[in-house]
Each structure stands twice: as C-alpha cells, then as structure tokens.
Design brief:
Order of helices and strands: HHHHEEHH
Low-confidence stretches: 1-9
Structural class: mainly alpha
Shape: elongated
Number of domains: 2
Radius of gyration: 23 Å
Length: 147
C-alpha cells in the first residue's frame, strides 16, 4: 500500500526470501542487488498475509509473464500488493485441511485421503442393491478412463 512502511523480518526470513527470489524462473529471476532489496519486503509481506515461500507463492508472483516489459518492476509491485492467501481447501467429509482427492467418482466433492480410503461397509444381500453398486462402479471406471 502506498506510504506503508514494512519493517524487515528476522535475518533468517530475509535470507530465505532472497534465496527464493533468486530461484524464480526466468524471466522473473532478479539481479542479486534487486533480490537483496526486495527480500525484506517479501519476508514481511508474505508472513503478514499468510504465504509461505513455496510453489503457491511462486505461482502467484510469476503469473502471466507475457507482455511485461520490466519483470523486476512488476515483481516488486506484486510483492508489495500481495493479497491475503486464500484459506486451504477442506475435506467434504471430515472438514480437515490438506491434500484432497476425488473419491473414485463416488462424490464430486473432494475428500482427504483417509476419508477416500475408508473401506465400504459390508456388501448388501439385496440383489438389486448389488446390481446398482456394480453399475455405479462401471460408470465411475468409464469416467476415469475418459479423463
């Protein structure tokens, strides 16, 4: 934000931020002196807005490189205008945050790995229910092959 003074973070955070900037993909890789000057701002801004120095932040900072004439100026602006990090997605079954998967086409809502791997209950003795389960499994398999 204009006129906002950002204090440098702890030395370890600033060093990690500088290393992070130096490892950005071309054409985003700044000169060492630019990385040194942006590192304290990145360390402070990322921490304040919930970002970690990782792939999500890298994607946020290096998005849409086409048509940009001065990557260092855009990188600096993106660091200073970094939005709050969106909250992590949660499992549709248990509500836990983390790594989510789609459970074999059984549900369009993503679930965590433990919920996706919970074994099904005992098979039904009803032949109609068994036939419906088989048809559902065949449809799910066909959908998975089309992807």
């Amino acid at each position: 934000m204009p006129g906002e003074h950002l204090r440098p973070g702890p030395a370890d955070d600033v060093a990690a931020a500088e290393q992070f900037l130096m490892n950005l993909p071309a054409p985003w890789t700044p000169w060492p002196q630019t990385a040194r000057s942006l590192a304290p701002v990145l360390a402070t801004t990322a921490a304040a807005r919930g970002w970690h120095l990782g792939t999500a932040l890298r994607a946020q900072l290096t998005d849409r490189p086409d048509g940009i004439r001065s990557h260092p100026a855009v990188l600096s602006a993106r660091i200073r205008q970094l939005p709050n990090r969106p909250p992590p997605a949660r499992c549709a079954s248990c509500g836990a945050p983390g790594s989510l998967v789609h459970a074999n086409g059984q549900s369009p809502r993503p679930v965590c790995v433990p919920c996706a791997t919970v074994p099904a209950g005992p098979p039904s003795a009803d032949p109609a229910a068994q036939a419906a389960a088989v048809r559902s499994a065949i449809r799910a398999g066909r959908r998975a092959r089309r992807r």
